[in-house]
Automatic annotation (TrEMBL):
Primary location group: nucleus
TM ranges: none
InterPro entries associated with the record: ESRP (IPR050666), Nucleotide-bd_a/b_plait_sf (IPR012677), RBD_domain_sf (IPR035979), RNaseH-like_sf (IPR012337), RNaseH_sf (IPR036397), RRM_dom (IPR000504)
Entry protein name: Epithelial splicing regulatory protein 2
Family classification: Belongs to the ESRP family.
UniProt-listed Gene3D superfamilies: 3.30.70.330, Ribonuclease H-like superfamily/Ribonuclease H
GO cellular component: nucleus
Keyword Repeat: yes
Gene Ontology MF terms: RNA binding
Length: 700
């Protein structure tokens, strides 16, 4: 038996059904017994949505009103009634089993599965297998229109059936016509129809991927804007209803081995990929996710691997993978097993542990652990930031693709995913300061188009542009150097900031409306350093958290970091923010701040701030300059700052509780320059003694 099913949402209709995340508001169904060609009772049920606002198209097509829907039952109740009524109709017809039959893929894959997943209740097994009437029709009538161009009306017209939709209520005509189409197909004696139903995977399957595999570029998408802590299962849930290939979720990492908020997802065929693209800007929690086309080559670059060690580790399928970060370099397998304890048994004991090492064999402090079930993995995640030795350990959900990416590619000489900007040049603008304090003389722009530049912002501000302070526009970029959609603007007074916020709030820029909020210089600095500012209040950036910062590491201040001319040709990975303004001396070098050429012409500070993943120190990067400007910068004359090449060293991998005394003790026996770097990195008196460069240096 078939259960012919039709539905509608509060938003788009037809080919765009489900593309706008609107909720289901109507279900109509009827049981059809194929051998006897008998039908059951036709049922129509309204569904009460959480948001009763209906689109104009929905009102026009369905004739439904919010008032009528307000009296209906919610979706979970309607689905229970559906199961009960179908079972009752089957008994009358002397049948016990059935398969759904819908008009295309959208109702089941793009509406029912995503909505029930978001509302946290399970669909019955019958919704994981169904017949697509359009495909069955094209199989029976090969000369008809292509599957993607079929509709109930075009199929009925092809068969010469009546197509006057006004004779019946919306949904009722569609189901009756679908039943008539099915009976016409049965009369043609087509042997190949209703034999192979469409299936929906109920669970995402993990697994390794080899670089030798052939991946069709028509099956891969890139998801951007993911929460840092999202796992492969979270991404699979976002694409609920679509069939992801085994091991088809690959989380992207940056050159430092941290997740960058992107993932490549491989589907079983191009049809599923095309449906995934329709979920562009759908939400995962409170964040919207961008979905774009990608290539098979990109997927293999992230997910592919050939290491025997990794292959053996991942050979145990359907395991939950947890990543541990911050392990002491001396930690052994026994130490890790002891840390996890008996409540988190590791699959295979020591065989379920994989330590990540540098090419020379030194430990990186990372490890991957296998657990046989979700319960054990949850127990392990509860140990997040517990102490092992003298260090706290971070635990995150991980994926097979991340294991391969980290172990095989993270520590190559060439970064797997380039995330830092191209070379930068020094430009010496007039002196400026970033506002501090509690005076609310700044505004925050949120929701900017990603293609928006300074010119767009100035046009958006209109007449208020004249009230912007010099160098008062601050664009916020993400860790890959791409616009984050946020910007801060310093106004000449709090009154000007208030007027701008009132005038420009939710004003359109290109195809998006932009939110404009008044804020203070202190709040702006917190956000630029990686903190968050929302309705819940102000959350400090990671560098302000006591557990992550030594006492001398202060908040972001107004003074600009100064970089030597030689450094202008390289990409700085991180610069310490200034903690105080040094006393002026005759020998002090001139301050050199980095801007793009076009920003200098506009007298705007276009410094790029790169927020880091949770519990990571904030990285401050800079906007790239045109290649021609780099050559000009190389020939320019600047006051030399470094006494000799290689005199400044960077320490990486320090325990988080390391103090000044430990660092001084580590470098005991080496000679330090008295004051060479006070202009390069402005520090407190306590910190300056640590960062004096040695006159002589050896490799450690």
């Amino acid at each position: 038996s078939l259960v012919v099913l039709f539905g509608a949402t509060a938003g788009a209709y037809g080919a765009k059904l489900g593309s706008d995340e609107r909720e289901l508001i109507l279900l109509v169904w009827q049981v059809v017994d194929l051998p006897s060609k008998k039908v059951g009772t036709l049922h129509k049920s309204l569904v009460k949505a959480d948001n009763l606002e209906l689109s104009d198209q929905c009102r026009e097509v369905t004739g439904l009103t919010p008032e009528g829907l307000g009296k209906a039952e919610p979706l979970d109740r309607v689905l229970q009634q559906f199961s009960q009524l179908v079972s009752s109709d089957l008994k009358v017809l002397g049948r016990s089993s059935y398969t759904l039959c819908s008009d295309g893929q959208l109702l089941i894959r793009q509406v029912l599965h995503p909505e029930t997943s978001k509302k946290n209740f399970l669909l019955s097994d019958c919704f994981y297998s169904f017949y697509d009437l359009r495909k069955e029709f094209h199989t029976c009538y090969p000369s008809s229109a292509a599957v993607k161009d079929q509709t109930i009306k075009t199929m009925a017209e092809y068969l010469g059936l009546g197509t006057d939709e006004t004779e019946e209520d919306f949904g009722v005509w569609q189901v009756k016509t679908m039943v008539a189409i099915i009976f016409s197909m049965l009369s043609e004696s087509c042997n190949d129809i209703f034999t192979e139903p469409e299936t929906v995977k109920c669970k995402y399957e993990t697994g390794p991927c080899s670089k030798s595999e052939t991946v069709d570029s028509e099956t891969v998408i890139r998801a951007r804007g993911l929460p840092w802590q999202s796992s492969d299962q979270d991404i699979a849930r976002f694409f609920k209803g679509l069939n992801i290939a085994k091991g088809g979720v690959a989380l992207c990492l940056n050159a430092q081995g941290r997740r960058n908020g992107e993932a490549l997802v491989r589907f079983v065929n191009s049809e599923q990929r095309d449906l995934a693209l329709e979920r562009h800007k759908h939400h995962m929690g409170s964040r919207y996710i961008e979905v774009y086309k990608a290539t098979g080559e990109e997927f293999l670059k992230i997910a592919g691997g050939t290491s025997n060690e990794v292959a053996q580790f991942l050979s145990k399928e359907n395991q939950v993978i947890i990543r541990m970060r911050g392990l002491p370099f001396t930690a052994t397998q026994e130490d890790v097993l002891g840390f996890l304890g008996p409540e988190c048994p590791v699959t295979g004991g020591k065989e379920g542990l994989l330590f990540v090492k540098y090419p020379d064999g030194r430990p990186t402090g990372d490890a991957f652990v296998l657990f046989s079930c979700e319960e054990y993995a949850q127990n392990a995640l509860k140990k997040h930031k517990e102490i092992l030795g003298k260090r706290y350990i971070e635990l995150f959900r991980s994926t097979a693709a991340e294991v391969q990416q980290v172990v095989l590619n993270r520590y190559m000489s060439t970064p797997l995913i380039p995330t830092l900007p191209t070379p930068i040049i020094p430009v010496i603008p007039p002196p400026y300061t970033i506002a501090t304090g509690s005076v609310r003389d700044c505004v925050r722009l949120r929701g900017l188009p990603y293609t928006a530049g300074i010119d767009d912002i100035l046009e958006f501000m209109g007449d208020a542009t004249g009230d912007i302070k010099p160098h008062g526009v601050h664009m916020v970029l993400n860790q890959q150097g791409r616009p984050s959609g946020d910007a801060f603007i310093q106004m000449k007074s709090a009154d000007k900031a208030f007027l701008v916020a009132q005038k420009c709030h939710k004003k359109m820029m290109k195809d998006r409306y932009v939110e404009v909020f008044q804020c203070s210089g202190e709040e702006m600095n917190f956000v630029l350093m990686g903190g968050t500012l929302n309705r819940s209040g102000l959350s400090p950036p990671p560098c302000k958290l006591p557990c992550l910062s030594p006492p001398a590491y202060a908040a972001f201040q107004t003074a600009a970091a100064v970089i030597p001319a030689e450094a202008a040709l390289y990409q700085p990975q991180a610069l310490l923010p200034a903690t105080r303004t040094p006393q002026a001396t005759a020998a002090a070098p001139p301050a050199v701040t980095y801007y793009p050429a076009q920003a200098a012409q506009l007298y705007m500070n276009y410094t790029a701030y790169y927020p880091s993943p949770p519990v990571s120190p904030t990285t401050v990067g800079y906007i790239a300059a045109p290649p021609g400007a780099v050559a000009a910068a190389a020939t320019a004359t600047h006051t030399p700052i470094l006494p000799q090449p290689g005199a400044l060293v960077r320490m990486q991998g320090l325990p988080y509780n390391t103090g000044m005394k430990e660092i001084l003790s580590f470098f005991q026996g080496y000679q330090y320059a008295p004051d060479d770097y006070s202009g390069l990195i402005q520090l407190s008196d306590q910190a300056r003694s640590v960062l004096q460069a040695p006159k002589e240096w050896v490799c450690l």
